[in-house]
Here is the input.
Amino acid sequence: MSKNKVTIMKVCFTAKGTNLDALMEERFGRAPHFILVESENGSFEAIQNPFADGGGGVGPKAAQVLIANNVQALVSGQVGGNAQEVLAAAGIAMYTYRAGKSVRDALDQFTRNSLARSG
Amino acid sequence: MPGQIMKLAVASGKGGTGKSMVAENLAFTLSRTEPVTLVDCDVEEPNLHLFFPAPATTTDVTVPVPVIDETACQHCGLCGEFCQYGALTVLSNRILFFPELCHSCGGCILVCPNDAIHEEPKRIGTLSTSAPQPDLKLISGTLDTGSPHAVPVIRAAKKQAANDQLVIIDTAPGTSCPVVEALDGCDACILVTESTPFGLHDLQLAVDVAARLGIPAGIVINRSDGKDEETLRFCIDHDIEVMIPFSREIAAIQNRGDLLCRARPEWQKDFCALFLKCRALTGGER
Here is the structure.
């Protein structure tokens, strides 16, 4: 358990849908939705990624969405180089989840501190 | 055929159909009677210089990219919001710039309220100009390895030939931005295809692109194996002139870096005829 490490934290999960039962999306910049979970109480909000179908440069643009929403950690399958640079500069921790299951499963693994840090 | 004013592009949907072969033999043949400029716009893999070895003058192709004056920047974020390409990310205390994402639109400079951004040139490729034989000028655009934007190099190569009378442009394969940029403004184009299902499929895409750009197109079937029925049917359906069905024997000449029309001068009349057909496509009065 990592409760002492994670106090009040907003964590972003890249998802194919808009709730905790939605499947995780492996891609970061082109994820259809971002599920932002308050790690303290488990409440969440879903925001649509406006850059999911963008032409290019979607990684840094999506990273800006996370910065604007005061996200402190990201759980995703694969984060591209440019997005990683932005997220790292903004102090957003990155965790890799590639089990392909639901946001709830990824959240569970995140709170049990069993996901690897990346970036 | 003195005094031609014509920009003729050689394109194809599918790669490896023989664009360069057609372009270089056309240029070689026509340059025997009048000045010709041959422009290699396949800037990701230019190859025409291999067939026309000669000393070249090389200049850099640059694009303007923003440089941020960190002492003047207030980190207001307007430039990052404006940039549609994700090239600028503004954090609370610094700006991240990704030059490979920048399209050099200059918008960040316009929206900056603090005059904190100016542009500096960034090299993305080169232009090489040579005169491999009398009355033939070769302009080759080369995109630097790792540079993602071919279009500015193609634009620069075409600009270098802007005042020339008879210009033959060898394009990249495919139907994406580099091909559109190379075709833009041409009086006619030759689409080189081969009699395979892939050749026909990609030819259809290329015909569509040329039609949308309003550029008259003719078709050359290269490496014709005598089983061209489907391609020929497509040509007839689309009221496009079928030009020269070639034979296989050319490959050996080509592969040793020689030119068909130099090794086998009897082919020159075929390329002259090809050019006359292209001129007819434009209405003949250009």
In short: The domain at 6-34+165-281 of chain B is CATH 3.40.50.300 (Rossmann fold). Chain B touches chain A through twelve residues (CB under 8 Å). Residues 40 and 47 of chain B are 8 Å apart (CA to CA). The mean pLDDT of chain B is 91.
